[in-house]
Amino acid sequence: MDRKELRSKLAQLQAEGKIVPPMSLIKTEEQLQGIRESAAINTALLDYITPFMKEGITTEEIDKLVYDFTTSHGAVPAPLNYEGYPKSVCVSINEVVCHGIPSKTRVLRSGDIVNVDVSTIYKGYFSDASRMFLIGEVPAAKKKLVEVTKDALELGLQEVKPWGHVGDIGAAIEAHATKNRYSVVREFCGHGVGNAFHEDPYILHYGKRNTGMVMVPGMIFTIEPMLNMGSRNISVSRKDGWTVTTVDKKPSAQWEYMVLVTEDGFEVLSH
Fold this sequence. Notes:
By secondary structure, this protein is an alpha+beta fold.
């Protein structure tokens, strides 16, 4: 479908009362090429740091690995100085939900579950993904949280299809979390990405089917559920203004994929 035909279809859907994306969110072939290059570096970065994610490494050392790898590929770590964020990566451990700031004093210990969230700018194009890592001997309950969160993401991913609704993604994730007696963090969500770090639409990880923006081929967004073992209530650090933790100090887990809506489904660009 060319862009003229697409405009016509979107106008028709809008007339039917649907929420449709502006054409600026439908990536052109030129943009897709640039975004794919950025995403390839982003995924390679997560692959690169994986063998280093062991007991004894500091989160500051992880940050240096991320910075050095990214810049050696002619790219820029998107988090660095973003709205004042001081580091190149977010490293969130155990009860830290997201936006954990790397530190010289925080050492990974056996039993930790760790989310590493990396975002890359390459030739002006943005990419974003995160993975969980299990450090040493991790208790079964924490392992299950990590596994169920990954499964929830995969179930949400299966809902990505052209002319579906973004609410279908959140409904699938919430149902799986609830079935396993976990709570879904609501204050943070997935988002459009590619031409900027954060674009529309917001991808909620809870909600109802057949609601929200229509998914259209050429849209790119992240799916990044955060599930808590206990309450969904969170708190933002007053000290640094970034670190988000569970109020009850129970563990939280997150996985993030960057996804392109295609003519017949989806393509995972970074993971």
